[in-house]
Design goal:
With 452 residues, the protein is mainly beta. It contains 6 helices and 19 strands.
Length: 452
Amino acid sequence: MSLKKTKRLPFLFFACGAALLPNATIAGAGDGATNYGLGPMNAGTALAFSPFASNSWSVYYNPAAMAGSPEGELSVIVQYGDQELRAKSLGGAAPLERENDVLSDTSSELLLIGLKSRVAGISSIDKPIYFGLNVGVDEYSSNLLPYQANTSQEGQFLRYESQPLYLAFGGAISNILRGIDLGASARLTLEAKANLETVSDLGGNTDSEKLSLEASPSLSPALGINIRSGEMFCGTSQCMPFGMDKLELALFWRGESSYKVSVDANVVVPGVIPEPGLSLALSTIDTYQPEVLGAAVLLPIGKFELTAGIEQHKWSALEREFASDTVRDQANLSFDDITIPRIGLSYQWSKSMKLFAGAALEDSPLKSTRSQDVNYIDTDKKVIGLGASYRIASAPVINMPLEVAFAYQRQILDEADFELTSINSSTDPAPYETVRADGEINVFSSSLSLKF
């Protein structure tokens, strides 16, 4: 979390920030699930197969999908994202000096571990029950809990800028009614609080410091239901025309989530600020994920599987969060709810190899073309992906099925113009510069999964 909004006491902000600030990177484990997709199948299909993939990563997207296969899984994912996010100056009353158009080209490096297992003997319910767990960290575990909430003169992208620890867990019940699977899960988020009391001189040299930091967890829920139409209406027979007895429908919901940080500080400067001192309270959020409602259909046709889905992401609720955010509250940001269509295709090339691809179109939720001091920019984007998986029926030594998978995803960010404004600019309240944002993102995902 970078605390740049108030500049009268820079030494105080430095002391507060030191308690919470590792180096910031981009699009890490906390938001990689929606920005990119977790694992090759999700990244390689632009999340089109996420409502149906019965692997350990369905815990996040649609927990009911875990019940789609009785097979257990222990999976490790290594994922790399190469982003180039740009803002080209179109001039203005007082444009900034820029070396180039690139705002951010920092890479994203994720390590994720997922587990899915059938659970027996813990319930009197005479139905198969499954449990799943996901854990993810940024920079291959060297950057566990960073936060950032910045104002920016050059402009900053709304998304791809956050990465706290990712943890999700949940369960599913198969055939709770004939042809119907039901699942529920939760994602862990944190609320961190720091308290600082200190005596300082005007040079920022402190003594008598008292610093405390605590974090409390909260859970963001998700629900899913998968319906196999042929099984529900026809049982074991085939009673629907045109092969529709194999059609599967998925309905899912994910609650909103965010990581929250608050800092309460009190400083005394002898001869300038006497006892009881100057109190300062800051509160901000990081890695916001909106409430999601979605529906998708899956139709197997021979060796092919076709899927199409639509999701509504309720970004408008972020206006309420930012209104009480002390880093961004002056920006008067406005957001739209957005609808994202996705399509995907998979082909069983052989008994061992599967090929898959997908695409999605995503509008930007950001309505504001100017946001004082914060200067958020965001654009519509097109997402395409492709990948392959290969299954070894009996791996050497372990004598269990082993699956390796690889995928590539490309995101193309459309052009959009934004006006940069600052209360400290000589042009205030008029913008000092107009920029045109765009960018490209390349994601490479690989996984190794032990089946049991």
